[in-house]
Design brief:
- The chain is an all-alpha fold.
- It has one domain.
- Helices cover 48% and strands 0% of the residues.
- The longest helix has 14 residues.
């Protein structure tokens, strides 16, 4: 568990939030955050279509599984398991 803290704490200490969640939260990224996102190869950042869908779901009080009802690859959803 300490490893999780070691990874996340420096990000929170530096930015006060997770920069890769800005799109989902509807926040504007600072220049410094954009540089970090670019440097980390957009680690954990949701593609714009996914971020918009999550924001819509939050506003509507619902949860739609990513990929449900549409082509997940077209929405930019990345599957860690790979092709089946």
């Amino acid at each position: 568990m300490i490893e999780v803290i070691e990874v996340h704490k420096p990000i929170i200490d530096r930015y006060g939030r997770y920069p890769y969640r800005n799109a989902i939260e509807g926040r504007k990224s600072t220049e410094e955050e954009l540089e970090w996102i670019e440097k980390t190869d957009h680690f954990a950042e949701a593609p714009p279509a996914v971020a918009e869908r999550v924001r819509e779901d939050v506003k509507a009080g619902r949860w739609t599984p990513l990929g449900a009802g549409r082509d997940a690859s077209a929405a930019g959803v990345r599957c860690m398991a790979g092709p089946s």
